[in-house]
Amino acid sequence: MDRIKGMKKADAKRLLFFHAFFWAFSNLINPITPAMFLELGLPDYMFGVSFAAMAGASFFMAPVWGRLCGKIGCTKVIFIGFVTYAVTQIAFYYSVTQAEIIICRLAGGITCSAVPVATLAGLINLTGAEERSRGMLYYSVLSTAGCAVGYSIGGFLGSISIELAFQIQVVAIFLFALILLLTVKDPEPAWEERSLPDQKKSGSNITVLLAVFMASVFCASFATTAYDNAYNYYVKEALKFPNYYNGLIRAGIGGITLIVDFTVGAWLMKKTEVKRSIIACLFINGVVAVTVPLVSDVPAFVVGNFIFYAVNALYLPLQQTMATEDSNKENSGSVAGMFNSCQYAGKVFGALFAGFIYGAGSLLPFYSSGIVFILGAGCSVLYYRMKKGELKSGQRGDKGRRQILL
Which of 26, 115, 270, 322 could be stapled to 81 by a disulfide with Cβ–Cβ 3.0 to 4.6 Å? Predict the structure, then answer.
């Protein structure tokens, strides 16, 4: 039994390693994408449209990848995601028109969404209820760290050659796809996908409860994406930051978020009620997002963004823990697919909103992000109250049943 537990822990660590790697190299091109679009003479809204195309395809594909995890196994799904995403990046490099870029971003969204869905499903399979919150924390932290490393490396490579950045990205992803297939195996045979049992058994109340929770996930994803996309374009278009400087700032942000997640984030998960902590996290995100654009001094603006991303790093592991707390091997693919799909929906509308509203005012996406974060906090308050009421109702029912038996 201890040996099986040890094997599962080793497989979970490998999954997290490859997940972090994918986040790093899939984000390698992001800091130089605004420069590419400016060189091609594309309109401002294209940065939002291209991201929305990618996120939109991910939204539709996330449930499909979740079901495939149940049929062929999580590791094979991750391998497929690695290989096919590398192919789409080759096509993206050679794209020059708006139509070509949108098509390539759609293909990129279809392929890259396989990795987070399958990784999340795999972690649910490999961890017990007690270990899951720690697994979700590592999942979130490594995503953030990988993203920061990718932005940092990509920014420097882009300053040398955009072509070189694409070449390194594609070769590295192909290479690690092969290593993944040789070193990581699914711990058990592929299981048959089943529907989420709670939804079928518990009736409309659970459906409403789930909808309220997913609304908070959507709002947080929408707000984060709108802010992040506007920030990436703003520092290039308005502040005229070079590619390597943007990458350097992202690396610093990644370092700070790592520290925050492993200290404040870990404390929130161990010492507080997650369902209450998420309310404060989203509300603080909203306040900071609205406040940062009010700062006119450039160094102070950069510091303000460091604060925003540090606070922003806290909410995702809390939401992931809430989403997976009742999950098991039988429904992990469904849960991972549903959660990621809702996140991608927020990314679609957040990117589109930021892209189009940026033309009306470069600071409007930041203000709007703050408002949506506060709406997400409101949804979390409602979810907490409904969940608390449901537990009290269940306790009264148990007490009544015991009295009848007596």
Answer: 115
Largest CA distance in the chain: 79
Using alpha carbons only, give the angle 74, 154, 237 rounded to the nearest 5 degrees.
Answer: 120
Query: Domain map of the chain by residue range?
Result: 2-184+199-405
Q: How many Cα atoms within 13 Å fall on the side-chain side of residue 207?
A: 5
* The predicted structure's pLDDT at residue 3: 39
Backbone conformation region of residue 73, classed left if phi is above 0, alpha if psi is from -120 to 50, else beta? left
Superfamily of domain 2-184+199-405 in the CATH hierarchy: MFS general substrate transporter like domains (1.20.1250.20)
Angle between helices 332-358 and 315-324 (to 10 degrees): 150
| pLDDT at residue 291 in the model | 92
* Residue 397 neighbours by CB distance under 10 Å: 10
Residues of the chain with pLDDT > 90: what percent?
Answer: 26
Residue type at 265 in one-letter notation = G
Give CA–CA dist 287/379, Å, rounded.
Answer: 16
How far apart are the C-alpha atoms of 66 and 206, rounded to whole Å? 21
